[in-house]
Design brief:
Blueprint lengths: L2 H20 L3 E7 L5 E7 H10 L1 E4 L19 E6 L5 E2 L6 E8 L8 H14 L2 E14 L3 H6 L17 H6 L1 H13 L8 E2 L5 E5 L3 E2 L2 H19 L3 E3 L15 E7 L17 H21 L5 H4 L12 E3 L6 E4 L7 E4 L8 H17 L27 H9 L2 H7 L1 H19 L4 H7 L4
Parallel strand pairs: 1-6, 13-14
Antiparallel strand pairs: 1-2, 3-4, 4-6, 5-6, 7-9, 7-10, 7-11, 7-12, 8-9, 12-15, 14-15
Length: 451
């Protein structure tokens, strides 16, 4: 038996042991698509064990259609080999004796996968003798709507849940405590730790910071959280919306990402008691890489048209690459309360971000900064929302230009490879082109009687 065969056999044994531990009779096997949707099949536990041993196949259409399932590339839509990851097996929250498992494409086709790209960045960190901890926090709105009522209303005039809600509202939590307890219980079943649940600004608006996790689990947790939060609220006759911007009258919804690096023995690598603000040179180079590459890699963490509606002046979101210690108006907020908690908060991603892409972007740019010893510009304590940014630090203003910036980035191609970059850019440009064909109600109201 070769080393690779032995590794596969061991993984299959781990998979079977985990299903036995959960007493699972059914398994929900899912692959996350480029937009972060969990595309899954329900199979028996016996079949799942066979797939873990002999291999899994899934249709490659996931990389040839858009978020509305409109195909944009010529393909035969064939099944491609994929792997079931034993370390992702978790209890399924909505049925007894059921589990879920994350799978992903293998080989050259697997290069298109955001999750695989994230794993590659984590592998590079591992080779350096380090490990990464990270955690996402998501803001989202809840509507008193169902899929049927959304369509009956043509997605207009929607009714907000908890309309009297305020930021950090005791009233909302007291009135809807059972619902929030149900959300927490769902996530606990999924082995997703919640640091808190609290209300945010706007009717029916909530924020959930997740507990940090090591390696790929943090991104898995975040991707599963969004998919299962939406499912949980649907099961309660409600709709959870993770869009970046729902209305010019409502605040944008963020998907901030916290990242730190540690040595294998747990020593915080971003901390140095002798460094400025307690930051190590490693941390400064990581910041330097991310600040430098953020404008040209923006499409990775902001991959929808709607994400750019949040990143405008006056919307409580960054519009340029900058950083500051404990500065919530910066694109990178450095948190240095304690040595062990010294970390970077990447405040650019919206709630609609694909967690695998956001984490791959953050780690990839940070590693590039470390490898090239990039020192960041001076950090700032001013209100950076009101500051005039340097031209080179400004973000692209729309998805199409962001996709082109990413395509033109030599650092992106060196980090993620031409196969991934070209496929990702083609998909984002298609999304942008679909948007540009549309005519909004705002345009009609503004122009129909005048021009």
């Amino acid at each position: 038996m070769t080393g690779q065969q032995a590794s596969k056999a061991g993984a299959a044994q781990d998979f079977e042991a985990r299903l036995s531990e959960l007493d699972a009779r059914d398994v929900h096997i899912g692959i996350f698509d480029p937009d972060g949707m969990f595309r899954h099949k329900l199979v028996s536990a016996d079949k799942a064990k066979k797939l873990a041993t002999k291999g899994y196949a899934f249709c490659d259409v996931l990389y040839f259609w858009d978020i509305a399932e409109k195909t944009y590339a010529d393909s035969a839509y064939i099944d491609r080999p994929a792997t079931l990851f034993a370390d992702t097996v978790r209890r399924y929250p909505f049925a007894d004796q059921a589990a879920l498992c994350i799978a992903d494409f293998d080989g050259e086709f697997g290069l298109l996968s955001p999750r695989n790209q994230c794993l590659r960045m984590l592998s590079e960190i591992d080779k350096l003798g380090w490990r990464a901890n990270s955690a996402f926090e998501f803001e989202f709105f809840v509507f008193d709507e169902t899929p049927e009522s959304l369509r009956a209303k043509r997605f207009e005039g929607l009714k907000h849940f908890a309309q009297g809600n305020r930021t950090y509202s005791l009233g909302t939590a007291a009135l809807h405590g059972d619902l929030l307890a149900g959300l927490k219980s769902t996530m606990t079943t999924l082995d997703i730790g919640l640091d808190a649940i609290h209300t945010e600004l706007g009717p029916g608006c909530f924020e959930v910071p997740l507990l940090y996790a090591g390696g790929i689990k943090a991104a898995d947790d975040a991707a599963l959280f969004k998919n299962f939060a939406k499912a949980f609220f649907l099961r309660n006759g409600l709709t959870a919306a993770f869009m970046s911007k729902l209305s010019p009258d409502l605040p944008g919804q963020s998907g901030h990402l916290h990242v730190s690096l540690l040595s294998k023995d747990g020593r915080p690598l971003f901390y140095d008691p002798q460094g400025p603000n307690g930051l190590s040179q490693l941390a400064l180079h990581f910041i330097g890489g991310l600040v430098t590459l953020m404008p040209e890699w923006l499409a990775l963490c902001s991959h929808t048209v709607n994400a750019y509606k949040r990143m405008v002046p006056g919307a409580w979101a960054p519009t340029a690459a900058n950083w500051g210690v404990q500065n919530r108006t910066a694109a990178l907020r450095i948190i240095n309360d304690t040595p062990e908690a010294t970390r970077i908060e990447f405040r650019v991603p919206s709630a609609d971000t694909n967690p695998y892409l956001a984490l791959a972007m953050c780690l990839g740019a940070g590693l590039w900064g470390i490898q090239n010893k990039i020192n960041p510009p001076a950090g700032s304590s001013e209100n950076l929302y009101a500051a005039v940014p340097k031209p080179e630090s400004e973000f692209p203003s729309d998805l199409g230009s962001a996709a082109q910036r990413f395509s033109d980035s030599s650092a992106a191609r060196a980090t993620f490879g031409d196969v991934f970059v070209d496929a990702f850019v083609a998909a984002r440009k298609f999304e942008d082109a679909e948007y540009r064909r549309q005519v909004s109600p705002w345009e009609i109201r503004r122009y129909i009687e005048v021009v």
